[in-house]
Amino acid sequence: MVLDASVLLFVSILVRLAASGIALLAWIAHRDVVCLLGWSAAMFLSATAMWVSSFRGAGIALPVTLMANVLFLAGYTLMWASMRRFNDDRLTLLRQALSVLAVAGAFALLFLLAGHLGLPRRAQSALFALFIAGLTLAAAWETWRGFRHDGLRSRHIAAGALVCIAATRLVRVGLIAMQSAGLVAPRTAELVQSYTLYVNVLFLLVATAGLVLMAQERVDRSAPRPS
């Protein structure tokens, strides 16, 4: 049974907004854990992007899609850059902003080039999914890598969830490729895609929990122990 697209969209937006709020509240309590702020921004911007994409019409489909995709990418780039900054505080806010501009600019250029070359809309969807998967895997690597420096075991939860989120995007790319090659029926692709979106939402919650646990574990380790 294919999950209802409108319900999935509503749940995805709602979960992202909730995750954004939870991460923001956790960051207010733990200002030194900057990755929480990056995650909050990523969830808010991706929720906004999904809301914007719901307004696509026949005449404005391309500009609205591009705007939504750029918003989504900006959030995930901030997530990756903020995790890098959490691992290495020498990374400045300016460099984070430049990272967002560079990634968004590169994607917009490739997106428009694909349209100019007359490639099917699926190619643009695959490009977007690849960018999101790459950024999420990069954030997962930064999360995992930091364990060597601070030993926060909660990093494993967040990193694992991020890898699973990236995997759902790669499944999307695989489905697009198989559809283009005629190996998968549209109905089958729609079925698989609906469940990968559902799994994606679940792992967003796991990643949020992992990041909040990281902040709490960091506090617990720095707290003085009774003699």
Summary tags:
single chain; mainly alpha; about 230 residues; Rhopdopsin 7-helix transmembrane proteins; globular
Can you characterise this structure?
This protein is mostly helical and 227 residues long. The chain has one domain: Rhopdopsin 7-helix transmembrane proteins (Up-down Bundle), CATH 1.20.1070. Helix content is 83%, strand content 0%. It has 8 helices and no strands. The mean pLDDT is 90.
In a few lines, what is going on in this structure?
The protein is built from 8 helices and no strands.
Provide the fold topology.
Blueprint: H1 5-29, H2 34-53, H3 61-87, H4 93-116, H5 121-145, H6 147-150, H7 154-180, H8 186-222
Helix pairs in contact: 1-2, 1-8, 2-3, 3-4, 3-5, 4-5, 5-7, 7-8
Largest sheet, in brief, is: none
Provide the helix percentage.
over 70%
Shape: globular
Mean pLDDT: 90
Strand/helix succession: HHHHHHHH
| Termini separation | 59 Å
Query: Per CATH, which architecture?
Result: Up-down Bundle
CATH class: Mainly Alpha
Number of helices: 8
Q: How many structural units, i.e. domains?
A: 1
Rg, alpha carbons: 18 Å
The CATH topology corresponds to Rhopdopsin 7-helix transmembrane proteins
- Unreliable stretches, pLDDT < 50, 5 or more residues? none
- The number of strands is 0
Residues in β-strands, percent = under 5%
| SSE-based structural type | mainly alpha
